[in-house]
Design brief:
The protein is of the alpha+beta class and 78 residues long. The chain has helices at residues 53-62, 64-71; strands at residues 13-18, 24-29, 33-40, 45-52. It has one domain (13-77): Ribosomal protein L28/L24 (Ribosomal Protein L24e, Chain: T, Roll), CATH 2.30.170. The protein is built from 2 helices and 4 strands, in the order E-E-E-E-H-H. The chain has a two-stranded antiparallel ribbon with strand order 1-2. Strand 3 (33-40) and strand 4 form a beta hairpin. Belongs to the bacterial ribosomal protein bL28 family.
């Protein structure tokens, strides 16, 4: 499974670690991903998704059905 959010598409970002002497070395800023079971009321079952914490907060506001439709995810296969 790729390290990206299934609903928002958030993924890792390239960045620099900067030391006290201002030496810069490359590093990755990973997205804060969580494996989450979400209740899908229309399907009357749990759906297991890998979501960023931002997506979990947005999911509580918008709802699973509308976010999955915007992301192009078929919830029957999850």
């Amino acid at each position: 499974m790729a390290r990206h959010c299934q609903l928002t598409g958030k993924k890792a970002n390239n960045a620099f670690s900067i030391s006290h002497s201002h030496r810069r070395t490359k590093r990755m800023q990973e997205a804060n991903l969580q494996d989450k079971r979400v209740w899908w009321p229309q399907g009357k079952r749990w759906v297991r998704l890998r979501l960023s914490t931002k997506a979990i907060k947005t999911l509580q506001h918008k709802g699973l059905e509308s976010m999955a439709k915007a992301a192009g995810i078929n919830l029957n296969k999850c």
